Every structure is written in C-alpha cells, then in structure tokens.
C-alpha cells in the first residue's frame, strides 16, 4: 500500500541502503541530507508498491554516476538530478509519472527521493538490481532487453547531455566518458519503462527493506544485541570473516573506485586473512587463498562494533569489520545475469561461487570449525585479466 515517507524516515533508509549497496552506490550520508532537505522544503514523498503502478505509467530512474571516492569531495546539490529527469521528459515528449530507484545502494537509493519530492511524483518501492553494481548495463531490466537509453546526464554547472546508443554496453562506455569530463560524478536518469515493464523487471520492496534494515540495526544497538547477526539473519546470509583492516589499496581509475582491502582475522578467524576486491562495489572475497563469495551475491562489510555499513571509500587501516555474504536476486544467477555481472565479466578466471546456505543448526558463521571444504577455487590472489570490451 502507498505510504508517505517523511524526512525522519531517511536515516533508516540510508543506513539500510548502504548495507544492500555492497560498498558502493555513493555516500549514504550525503544522499540522506539531500533527500531530507528536499522533503522538508516540498513535503513527504509517496512511496508506492509495484502492484500499485498502472500499465499506463511511465517511470525512469534518478540517481548518480561516477566514482564514490570523488563524490565524497565533490558534493551534489540535488538540482542537477531534477535537471536530468526533466531533460529526459523533454526528450520523450511526455511526462514521467513515476520516479524509480536504479540500484539499492548508498546515495543512489536516497537521491530518487530528492527528485520525487521536488517534482511531486510518486516513488516506486523497488529497484533495478536488488543491490548496487558499477556499470549501467548491469540491471535486471537489461536482462529482459530494456534499453538504458534515452538517457540524460547533468552536472552542477547546468550542462545536460542526452544520449541514445546502439546497446547498453555502448551506453555505459559513452556515459562514463561524459561523466569523467563532468568531474567524475554526474546526475543520471535512464531506463524509461512503462508500468507493466516496471512490475515485471524490478526487484519489489527494496526501499521498504532498506528502511527495515536501518530500523533493525538501530533497535539492536539500543537493546545491546548483536546487530551484525540480526542483519545477517534478515538477509538470509552468513558471516564470512571478522578482523581488522591491515591494508587498503584504492585508486580512482576510468571513472571507478578500484582496489582491495586486506583484513587480518580475530577471534575464530585469528591467524587467517581475508582480501576483499572492489570496483565501486565489493566483487570478490578471498579467505586464505580460497574464494568464499563472489558477484552477483552481496558481499557486505559492516563495522564490528556498530554494524554500520562500510563503503569502499570509507575503508581504512585499523577498522574492525565483519564481512558477510547474502544471496542476490535469483535472476542474476541465470546465464544472462552472469554474463552481465559474473566474476568473468570483471576479469576473474573463475565462475560464480555461490554462497553456501546457513548451517543446519541455524548458525550463519563460517568459522574454521564450521567451514565446508572445497567451496570455491583456491587462488593465491584473484587472477585478473583484461575486462572484456563491450
């Protein structure tokens, strides 16, 4: 059922979005502030379920594109996201009736609230990924053949670019190059879909799940409960590792934040090491040379003490973290989904390593005593090849 989202709701939604964002999607704090300001100025946002979207509706996503490492320094203003959305309407020659969340992650889950509040449009309770991914063609609508263009990009200077491309991978290449010229971050609107297509292709209830996860973390901390375990249980996931960050290699390259974090184990994982590799989002978790989780499943890094989600740009030496894995939307595990977001697309020399289900005794941890041998390929470090060209 449709419900109103007030400014106060955004704190929980932003926290939960950062959990699902697997390290990416933009800074959740900045996105939350922009959304709260827009709602305070223009009133609450109407959040509608997919079932409430009529066939004649026309929706498009509203968010951002670029490197998270740049986004925390080059702050968005919010007006550029409205500019991109309206430019897309002009290109289409008809109004967009609904705002859509392109991905569940960081600010890209809260920026749609900015556009919905400023323009008085309903926001669909769902998203196109069920998590966050770094490239434009990586969306579930793309699996169904939905085109990412027409697409609009806008920056804080008022520059607007409208793009039509021959396919979604070319859309990514061209839009990424434009985003780099705009300063490595840009506002984005794309994936125009009618109501029936929205209902068929989006992951339902994502924004409500974000809010639920945020509430869960807040309540668990207030009751002095294990908030990490509560998140793991809610997502049907398992704990991969716990330790202290001993090394972070991070660079901004070709419009992405790329790198890795090395984590030395504590408690049940003492004497072991985990390496998490990322391209805006976490891609692969390798424990003592064995791949224990990989895209498209969610690899989530949380603070050991607070269960606050840690984005890739926030990783730093000495941080005590827990790494968990959670299952992705099943459509990502199809051949078409894995072709878009599987490990081999990102240049790894192994296939998707599905996360194992929780142990029969209900324990989600994967400490040495509960580890299943032979779960993933054994590697000294994740093998990298040149990423396939679109």
SSE topology string: EHHEEHHEHEHEEHEHEHHEEEEEEEH
The overall average pLDDT, rounded, is 89
What Rg is obtained from the alpha carbons, in whole angstroms?
20 Å
Going by CATH, the homologous superfamily of the largest domain would be: CV3147-like domain
- Taking the alpha carbons of the first and last residues, their distance comes to 40 Å
Q: What percentage of the residues does DSSP assign to strands (E)?
A: 25-35%
Topology:
Elements: E1 3-5, H1 10-20, H2 28-42, E2 45-48, E3 58-66, H3 68-71, H4 79-92, E4 98-101, H5 111-119, E5 123-127, H6 140-143, E6 151-154, E7 160-163, H7 168-181, E8 185-194, H8 195-201, E9 203-204, H9 206-222, H10 227-234, E10 238-253, E11 256-265, E12 273-279, E13 281-287, E14 290-294, E15 298-303, E16 320-326, H11 335-341
Parallel strand pairs: 2-5, 3-4, 4-5
Antiparallel strand pairs: 1-2, 3-8, 5-9, 6-7, 6-8, 10-11, 10-16, 11-12, 12-13, 13-14, 15-16
Helix pairs in contact: 1-2, 1-9, 2-5, 4-5, 9-10
């Amino acid at each position: 059922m449709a419900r109103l989202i007030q400014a106060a709701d955004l704190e929980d939604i932003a926290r939960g979005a950062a959990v699902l964002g697997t390290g990416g999607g933009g800074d959740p704090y900045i996105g939350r502030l922009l959304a709260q300001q827009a709602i305070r100025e223009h009133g609450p946002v109407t959040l509608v379920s997919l079932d409430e979207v009529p066939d004649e509706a026309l929706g498009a996503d509203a968010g951002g594109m670029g490197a998270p490492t740049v986004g925390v320094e080059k702050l968005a203003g919010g007006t550029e996201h409205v500019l991109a959305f309206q430019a897309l309407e002009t290109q289409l020659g008809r109004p967009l009736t609904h705002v859509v969340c392109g991905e569940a992650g960081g600010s890209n889950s809260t920026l749609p609230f900015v556009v919905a509040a400023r323009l008085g449009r309903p926001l669909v309770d769902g998203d196109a990924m069920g998590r966050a991914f770094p490239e434009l063609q990586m969306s579930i609508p793309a699996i169904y053949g939905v085109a990412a263009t027409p697409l609009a990009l806008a920056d804080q200077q008022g520059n607007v670019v409208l793009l039509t491309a021959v396919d979604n991978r070319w859309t990514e290449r061209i839009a990424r190059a434009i985003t780099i010229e705009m300063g490595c971050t840009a506002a984005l609107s794309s994936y125009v879909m009618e109501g029936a297509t929205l209902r068929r292709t989006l992951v339902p209830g994502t924004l409500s799940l974000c809010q639920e996860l945020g509430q869960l973390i807040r309540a668990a901390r207030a009751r002095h409960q294990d908030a990490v375990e509560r998140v793991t249980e809610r997502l049907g996931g398992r704990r991969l590792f716990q330790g202290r960050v001993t090394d972070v290699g991070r660079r901004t390259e070709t419009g992405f934040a790329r790198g890795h974090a090395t984590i030395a184990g504590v408690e049940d994982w003492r004497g072991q090491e985990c390496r998490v590799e990322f391209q805006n989002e976490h891609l692969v978790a390798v424990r003592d040379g064995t791949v224990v989780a990989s895209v498209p499943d969610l690899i989530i890094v949380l603070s050991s003490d607070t269960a606050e989600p840690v984005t890739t740009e926030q990783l730093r030496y000495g941080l005590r973290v827990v790494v968990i894995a959670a299952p992705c939307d099943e459509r990502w595990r199809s051949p078409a989904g894995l072709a878009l977001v599987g490990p081999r697309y990102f240049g790894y020399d192994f296939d998707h390593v599905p996360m194992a289900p929780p142990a029969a005794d209900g324990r989600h941890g994967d400490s040495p005593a509960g580890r299943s041998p032979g779960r993933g390929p054994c590697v000294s470090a994740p093998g990298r090849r040149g990423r396939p060209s679109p």
